Inverse folding.
């Protein structure tokens, strides 16, 4: 029913992908995505040690015959990251595709390809997408300003970012930032993308790790309830607008330094996601929260999105035919 270069390349039924989600994207969510015809990326950096990562990958693989992806975040972290070991694990555990992000994947393209692993690199701008193509990655994911996690410095919305990227590169483009339903899926395909990638929407699913209070917040919030912060230290992030985000915004408005911000922004997520203490830490979330009204299973969500995409196509057909 859906056939794009991404569904062929990643061998998935639907062009619907879940990006890496630090801390909460665990085996249950990854397996549910694969079983529902999509693909999810487990964030390697979530795990304290390599054995734990390997065990979680195998746990996910045991729960499905579908693909389990791995997210390798290359952003310079406070402690050194075992990038080479993550690459080895991806190859040894027969991960079909890795999502890289954070900075250039140049150093790991050849070893991943040698191990039979495909690479989709995620970028927040058109110029970076051109580099991704030059480096030989198999696909590029581009995020717009709406996205949860790390939008770019230039504040370009998904509606402009996606077609501009499609025009700039020949490799398949995956659209991300603000998608939450089948209308968005149809729109992304119409813009020339060959799949969508979501993070925020998949947080509000039954299989995603997360305290009920956090999921309730996702359901009850509006599109205006996120904050775009940390542009002043060149690490822009979109997060839930909670007390910590408000404090960061206040400090940035007055003028602040990386050193002053670090103690406040360090350690994203655990207490919010696991304990439901919503004002205790920063927590990534995108503007798509304004489109979330329930907490379905992953399969219910994907099936519904497919149905909505078909309805959107029919609406489009009718509108164009009657024009
Ligand atoms: C809670 C959360 C954690 C995330 N963690 C990561 C991560 O570890 N690595 C990464 O590359 N992207 C991460 N992202 C970004 C997502 O993979 C994805 O690019 C983004 O959520 C897409 O935009 P959307 O939230 O509007 O769907 C995270 C996003 C969220 C919401």
């Amino acid at each position: 029913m859906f056939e794009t270069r991404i569904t062929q390349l990643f061998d998935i039924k639907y062009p619907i992908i879940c990006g890496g989600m630090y801390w909460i994207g665990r085996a249950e969510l990854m397996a549910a995505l694969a079983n529902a015809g999509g693909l999810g990326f487990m964030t390697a950096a979530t795990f304290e040690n390599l054995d734990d990562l390997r065990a979680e990958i195998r746990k996910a693989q045991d729960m499905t015959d579908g693909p389990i992806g791995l997210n390798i975040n290359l952003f310079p972290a406070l402690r050194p990251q075992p990038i080479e070991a993550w690459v080895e694990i991806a190859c040894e555990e027969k991960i079909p595709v890795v999502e890289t992000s954070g900075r250039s994947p140049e150093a790991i393209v050849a070893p991943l390809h040698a191990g039979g692993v495909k690479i989709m690199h995620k970028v927040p701008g058109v110029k970076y997408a051109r580099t991704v193509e030059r480096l030989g990655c198999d696909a590029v994911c581009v995020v717009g300003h709406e996205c949860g996690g790390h939008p770019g410095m230039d504040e370009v919305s998904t509606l402009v970012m996606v077609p501009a990227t499609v025009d700039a590169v020949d490799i398949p483009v995956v659209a991300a930032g603000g998608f939450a339903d089948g209308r968005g899926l149809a729109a992304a395909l119409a813009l020339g993308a060959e799949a969508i990638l979501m993070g925020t929407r998949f947080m509000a699913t039954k299989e995603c790790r997360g305290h009920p209070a956090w999921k309730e917040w996702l359901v009850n919030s509006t599109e205006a309830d996120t904050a775009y912060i940390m542009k002043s230290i060149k690490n822009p992030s979109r997060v839930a607008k909670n007390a910590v985000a408000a404090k960061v915004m206040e400090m940035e408005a007055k003028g602040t330094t990386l050193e002053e911000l670090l103690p406040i922004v360090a350690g994203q997520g655990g207490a919010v996601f696991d304990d439901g203490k919503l004002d205790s830490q920063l927590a990534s979330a995108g503007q798509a929260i304004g489109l979330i009204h329930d907490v379905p299973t992953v399969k219910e969500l994907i099936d519904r999105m497919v149905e909505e995409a078909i309805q959107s196509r029919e609406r489009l057909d009718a509108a164009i035919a009657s024009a």
About this structure: Residues 298-321 form the longest helix (24 residues). The chain has 14 helices and ten strands. The first strand starts at residue 16 and ends at 18.
